[in-house]
Write a structure and sequence with these properties.
By secondary structure, the protein is an alpha/beta fold. Strands 5-2-1-6-7-11-10 form a 7-stranded mixed β-sheet, sandwiched between helices. A two-stranded antiparallel sheet has the order 3-4. Strand 10 and strand 11 form a beta hairpin. The chain starts with a strand and ends in a 24-residue tail after the last helix.
Length: 346
């Protein structure tokens, strides 16, 4: 059996520890029990806190470990949960974790972290030169803290040389099933997913992210070009025309636009159109063809390709996941709702 140690930390979302515990406990057991065949447990679980004492979640839930991390003698796999957002405070509180993780990694253990748990791996130096992911909203902060890490926040799950990370809090279930499949094979993972009524792992969180179209800047001419695109995204927009309107050559405009926003003008317009399309798909009232035309793409197949590249989902998959989240659709005859675009320029 696989020896897995799930770590409990104070101020963590309990589900990022409990979810993996339940998935690993169910692997080879729950499906077999439901089908009336002998269970074949695949993981030997150890639940540990730093000192062996109970931990408390931000909402007052107490979790009681079996042992302290010092008592974990053998671990093929270690799972680190999320933590509070004040990383410096959490690091000081859980300082004993870092040398222990380094020792276990040196002994060959696989180490997996969910959400902000990736910050503990980075602080321990285990992610330098590695690909890793985290919650999309934490990515920029961690990128500045740990520039040696190849952060891939568009991904739900990353694996690089025995180090695994996943995105948000409930991606702990995706990560756990990914690990079941890695260690036990696809069939066991699929049976586990069916028995628990959860989906097999997702691999992209791009469709869930709400990110600024551009980074903060003070270039008034480029801000004017951005405003024009936000008002006219449904129409043909040429780089030459934008450059001419703000009194620049095309070459100089492209250079300044990239310097100010972090994106090339064409990519900015593409991401803008996808952001508007996401809002339209969320009210479930429009067909994909209608949305494609509304955001400036006459070719619905081309639109589907652009949308999937930006979000990791097709427009239909996105609507299936998110339609209805904003309440009832607008009444017939009402004007087109203006998009609530994420802005961050000042």
């Amino acid at each position: 059996m696989i020896n897995v140690a799930v770590i409990l930390l104070n101020d963590s979302h309990a589900s990022t520890a409990i979810g993996p515990i339940e998935v690993f406990h169910s692997a080879g057991v729950l499906w077999n029990t439901l089908k009336g065949v002998p269970p074949v447990p695949r993981f030997r679980l150890t639940i540990a806190s730093l000192d062996g004492e109970p931990v408390t979640s931000p909402y007052g839930l107490h979790l009681v470990p079996q042992v302290s991390i010092r008592s974990v003698k053998k671990a093929d796999l270690i799972v680190v949960p999320s933590s509070g957002l004040d990383l410096d405070t959490q690091f000081a509180r859980h300082a004993a974790l870092f040398p222990w993780l380094r020792r276990k990694a040196a002994q060959g253990a696989h180490i997996a972290a969910t959400c902000t748990g990736a910050a503990y791996l980075a602080q321990a130096g285990l992610l330098d030169g590695h690909e890793a992911t985290t919650h999309w909203a934490m990515a920029e902060d961690l990128r500045h803290r740990y520039p040696k890490v190849n952060w891939r926040p568009e991904k739900f799950i990353t694996e690089d040389r025995r180090i695994m990370c996943s995105g948000g809090v409930y991606s702990s279930m995706d990560l756990s099933l990914y690990l079941v499949e890695k260690f036990c094979g696809h069939e066991v993972a699929l049976q586990c997913a069916k028995a628990l009524l959860i989906n097999m792992p997702r691999f992209y969180q791009s469709g869930y992210a709400v990110l600024p179209l551009s980074r903060p800047h003070s270039d008034d001419k480029i801000r004017a070009a951005e405003a024009y695109m936000e008002e006219n995204y449904a129409h043909d927009i040429s780089i030459e025309g934008l450059a001419r309107d703000v009194g620049m050559s095309s070459r100089n405009f492209i250079r300044r636009f990239k310097s100010a926003t972090g994106r090339l003008p064409g990519n900015y317009l593409q991401v803008l159109r996808v952001a508007v399309a996401k809002e339209m798909l969320e009210d479930a009232a429009r067909s994909v063809q209608t949305v494609s035309l509304a955001v400036g793409y006459d070719d619905a197949a081309f639109f589907r390709g652009v949308f999937k590249r930006c979000t990791g989902m097709t427009p239909g998959e996105y609507r299936e996941n998110f339609a209805g989240m904003r309440g009832a659709p607008s009444e017939p005859g009402m004007g087109r709702k203006q998009p609530k675009l994420a802005r961050n320029r000042r």
